[in-house]
Amino acid sequence: MTDSISIPPEQRIEVLPDLETLSQRALEITVEQMEVAIAARGRFNLVLAGGNTPKSLYEKLAQVSLPWEQFEIFWGDERYVPPDHPESNEGMARQAWLNQVKIPPGQIHPMPTQFPEPAQAAASYEHTLQDYFQTIGLAHPQFDLVLLGMGPDGHTASLFPKTAALSVKDRLVTVGQKDDQPRLTLTAKAINQARCVLFLVAGSNKQQALTQVLTGAGEPQIYPARLIHPQETLIWLLDHEAGLGWSEDEAAEN
Ligand code: 6PG
Questions:
Q1: Does 159 sit in the ligand 1 pocket, CB within 6 Å?
Q2: What b/e readout covers 102-131, taking b as 16+ CB neighbours within 10 angstroms?
Q3: Burial class (CB in 10 A: 0-12, 13-18, 19+), 3
Q4: For the whole prediction, is pTM greater than 0.70?
Q5: Tell me, what DSSP letter sits at residue 156?
Q6: Ligand 1: which atom is nearest the Cα of residue 185?
Q7: What is the pLDDT of residues 184-233, one digit of tens each?
Q8: How do 108-109 and 181-186 pair as beta strands?
Q9: Ligand 1 atom closest to Cα of residue 79
Q10: Does 89 contact ligand 1 (Cβ within 6 A)?
Q11: CA 111, 122, 2, 155 torsion: positive or negative?
Q12: What values do phi and psi take at 44, rounded to 5?
């Protein structure tokens, strides 16, 4: 069954020569979105991606001077491991960036992984998000920018193909499943309430899934990145290997 998916007002693809230039462009876009958010609402609600691709962007963010006191940091997904585990998305972001800058600790909101059951952790993070957004006067939680990666199978965050997480429409956070490993993940609903989503996709092993997602040919249950349609802007940053054959105007037509 194809979910009724609305197409965002603006969707664009940028193909960069390599991960370095992709990360530099991602930095530019992140700062642009930050400036818009802070000018409008006095804060920047940013969701971090996990995996390897965004690490280079995080390392660049550690090198620039930004109004860190106006940043609120969240995660799009998390492996169900402690923050000091080598697989931890929180641990990677803290080591690459957050430990180097002065974002107030209370404004960094990692996904909790200490609960006995992942479902308890998902419920806890749901409350964290609801409480935070109510505190800032938003009836519906809305992130300013969500950073996402995409796996070779078309998954994004921890929304993996043919898993129950893809069908959760009444919550912001749920339990994802990668093979037999539980994950915590924002739902497509939570991501799609965001103003802007920025995908960072590098590597030739992403080409097949990208084609399925960007042409719209792939079923969302099989290629979950197809579920992602934010309120205002959807930007794909691809390196040359992942984006082989794609150009900006071509994608805009699809
Ligand atoms: C994770 C990520 C996941 C990631 C993709 C791409 O926790 O692994 O959230 O969705 O973005 O698997 O990973 P790479 O960037 O390492 O290719």
A1: no
A2: ebeeebbbbbbbeeeebeebbbebbebbbe
A3: middle
A4: yes
A5: B
A6: 9
A7: 999 999 999 999 999 999 999 999 999 999 999 999 999 999 999 999 99
A8: unpaired
A9: 7
A10: yes
A11: positive
A12: -125, 105
